[in-house]
Amino acid sequence: MSERLAAEAAALDAADGLRAKRAEFVLDDTVYLDGNSLGALPASVAGRLADVVGREWGRLRIRSWEESGWWAAPERVGDRVGALVGAAPGQVVAGDSTSVNVFKAVVGAARLAGEGRDEILVDAATFPTDGYIAASAARMTGCRIRAVDAGDLPGEAGPRTAVALVNHVDYRTGRLHDLPATTAALHAAGARVVWDLCHSAGALPVGLDAHGVDFAVGCTYKYLNGGPGAPAYLYVRRDLQARFDSPLPGWNSHADPFGMDPAYTPAEGAARGRVGTPEILSLLALDAALDVWDGVSLDAVRAKSLALTDFFLRCAEAYVPGGRARSVTPVPHAERGSQVSLSCPSGAGEAMAELARRGVVGDFRRPDVLRFGFTPLYTGFADAHRAARVLGEVLAG
Amino acid sequence: MSERLAAEAAALDAADGLRAKRAEFVLDDTVYLDGNSLGALPASVAGRLADVVGREWGRLRIRSWEESGWWAAPERVGDRVGALVGAAPGQVVAGDSTSVNVFKAVVGAARLAGEGRDEILVDAATFPTDGYIAASAARMTGCRIRAVDAGDLPGEAGPRTAVALVNHVDYRTGRLHDLPATTAALHAAGARVVWDLCHSAGALPVGLDAHGVDFAVGCTYKYLNGGPGAPAYLYVRRDLQARFDSPLPGWNSHADPFGMDPAYTPAEGAARGRVGTPEILSLLALDAALDVWDGVSLDAVRAKSLALTDFFLRCAEAYVPGGRARSVTPVPHAERGSQVSLSCPSGAGEAMAELARRGVVGDFRRPDVLRFGFTPLYTGFADAHRAARVLGEVLAG
Lengths: 397, 397
Fold this sequence. Notes:
Two copies of one chain form a homodimer. By secondary structure, the first copy, chain A, is of the alpha/beta class. Chain A has a seven-stranded mixed sheet with strand order 4-10-9-8-7-5-6, with helices on both faces. A four-stranded antiparallel sheet of chain A has the order 11-12-15-14, covered by helices on one side. A two-stranded antiparallel sheet of chain A has the order 1-3. In chain A, helix 4 runs parallel beside helix 10, helix 5 packs parallel to helix 6 and helix 11 runs parallel beside helix 13. The mean pLDDT of chain A is 97. Chains A and B meet through helix 2, helix 5, helix 6 and helix 10 of A and helix 2, helix 5, helix 6 and helix 9 of B. Chains A, B: Keywords: Hydrolase, Pyridine nucleotide biosynthesis, Pyridoxal phosphate.
């Protein structure tokens, strides 16, 4: 069986149209299945960052805000991210953390809500920070917060709902929520939606514009490989921008930031989502990292992602001793992100540590989840096969 | 006269105990007097950042959050900044922009205020972002905002004052406000104070602990040379930390961040000021940049700073044609930061551009201010002399 699966992996890799992309990353013999937490290093980053430090900061110094394009980088890099999540230019700005952007988006959405809408819905399985920040946004806008299962949002949204904050892909199980249908249902209820794309951007087509999403946020250090803590981003749909009333109206979002006007006049467009001075080194590392996406089709990424997780699930079924771990990731493609999560009721944490010692890196999420992220740009089918085989050995041991 | 001043500059440089520090920066023939906007590049940054990218991110990848100390970096770097502003360890956390930290601090301070205190004072000449963000904080905490001259704060604070937000050094004029007396007066009125240290940290001793300051924020890309948009910081005095109620309770500030608890329980200590995942590349560039402070006395920095600005003022008086520019920076040392601002009613913007073409970099702030920042670690008296001489030539031309 092992030989048959190994041969199948080799055949799938040989037919993989994205296979050449792997050479654009710094990788080694490790099977790195934690790109859903921190993406691998794109090879172009080191040289670009050395130039940003040595020449742009070191020699041009203050002139770089204009001459090296630092000032406009949040919008420029935002547009590059936007292209990967289905947003036309001028709607995405990069900067701050995901948490800070959740605050901007949820408060901004709540302030757009009509009379009597004072309820903020959050998906019950949300990544925790979204829930904490949404609660703060609710407290500071006179709203109350209610947690409901993401799948139940269409039925739960009502005349009091101002906005729902939803994770596109559940970080724990890898479940992909139905963005088009959920967005439409919330709109039908008169509510806005904020999508958190942390676990979908760069893994699958998102289609923000196509589906009429109101607001979206996400990080760039997972499937977008922007580096540790790379700047997050905020999407505000074009027709909402003029009414977007940010709770963090820093000077970078002013219509005339160097006018030093004591009165605040917000900028038009995506720049309204800016706050303070952007962390340029992290931002331009992200900019360089995004080069790996040149010429890549998100449809091809999605097709490979599903093929990888399908194949890994088959291999895991073949290698893992019965009962030691079971997948909690949905089987239907329409409900699956780009990770596989296995529930491993006994010794999950130790098993993941042992996997790492044997050259397979995933991660462990309490209480019992083994997470394996599949990043189609640099992960191949032989990697998936090896990971499942080693997992089987560890869990049999 | 020119020869006498040149000789004096040479003598002052020869006697300068901080002179050797200049070799720790990447500099050239330019007289760089814009370190109050973007500090020059410390030589140690490039190597450190190359290692962070190539080894910590590229090879250790996700393991670096623990093994390379990424997770604890905001507190560790915060303590290093704290040492430079008179804060004992455990009270400063690095991360986010100054604007975001102003929001945390002002909301946090307003939430500590006693019954009936619903007024937030801001200094009338504040750097604009502080005023914009304070207004948002007021709006979201049910307070009103009132702008008063920083010097008038002691008399203006009253029984309704919750908190005052004050710039330690006025960005436009270089005026240093009296932190000990203002803090004491606000406390006497039952109010809290948030100091913005952007233009004082690294330029003079601040003494946060010694003077009982409640909250402070600041950037690290000016006198601290942390790089473009380097992470800002938040100081919350130790005895206030347990009651600090952050408006941005992101998962990094949770008592058990990897517990993924749907309920928010804030961390103890400085970590409560964290929000989302820190921008590690920018943060560790700052960390490396702070190495230049090893063994440096802030008293020596302050003494040299005042000597530099004194000398520059004398040189400017000697070289600048009468009436073409006049200093708006206070003469008394106790009222002066580390910059000299000259009001130049006609052609200030063009004069500053011409200065740059002649190798002297300062900056221009509308409507008519020429700003020259003096960074004692890498600026010498001959630099000050040359800047004033070239300024005189430009304004005479």
